[in-house]
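Lab notebook, design round three. We kept the backbone fixed and only want residue identities now. Task for the bench partner: fill in a sequence for the structure below.
Input structure tokens:
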């Protein structure tokens, strides 16, 4: 049974903080290719069982990077020019090298659905990223979202069982 209660998951992140730190060290001692194989299989099962439109927690809580290609695609999707799009929706670092959506929750979340889904930023397409190889290289970032994303939470808890992690 998959856990999708965001409150329970957020509480688990606090309660299991020490356990998860220990699990990160445990994972780092394992063969990275074997971990990728397990995570990929668990991600497939978990993603199929969780309806992101009932959750939307990443869209409500994450700062979303907007790359140049994202801005161009989103502006075209919204029939705006890029400058107007950026003025309205994007905040840039003083050096202009980093651009993020200028609100959290994201402007484009409505009734837990993305209203620019076809044109959404690359980061949104990739999150939570468990399908990508190199899981062990991204432990810090993945566990940072353990208490936020039900897909990550369920995959990690199932991975503990698969690997007979004693805690
Ligand atoms: S662009 Fe869409 S998918 Fe990305 S954070 Fe906003 S609402 Fe979510
Ligand atoms: S990716 Fe994770 S946090 Fe985002 S909507 Fe899906 S389950 Fe929720």
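Proposed sequence:
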């Amino acid at each position: 049974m998959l856990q999708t209660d965001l409150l329970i998951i957020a509480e688990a992140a606090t309660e299991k903080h020490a356990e998860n730190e220990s699990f990160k060290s445990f994972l780092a001692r394992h063969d990275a290719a074997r971990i990728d194989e397990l995570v990929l299989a668990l991600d497939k099962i978990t993603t199929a069982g969780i309806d992101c439109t009932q959750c939307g927690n990443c869209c409500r809580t994450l700062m979303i990077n907007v790359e140049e290609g994202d801005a161009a695609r989103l502006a075209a999707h919204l029939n705006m020019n890029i400058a107007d799009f950026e003025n309205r929706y994007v905040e840039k670092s003083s050096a202009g090298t980093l651009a993020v959506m200028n609100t959290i929750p994201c402007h484009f979340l409505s009734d837990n659905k993305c209203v620019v889904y076809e044109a959404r930023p690359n980061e949104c397409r990739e999150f939570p990223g468990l399908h990508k190889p190199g899981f062990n290289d991204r432990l810090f970032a993945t566990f940072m979202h353990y208490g936020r994303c039900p897909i990550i939470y369920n995959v990690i808890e199932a991975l503990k069982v698969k690997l007979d992690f004693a805690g």
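Keep this in mind before ordering anything: Residues 63-121 form one domain.
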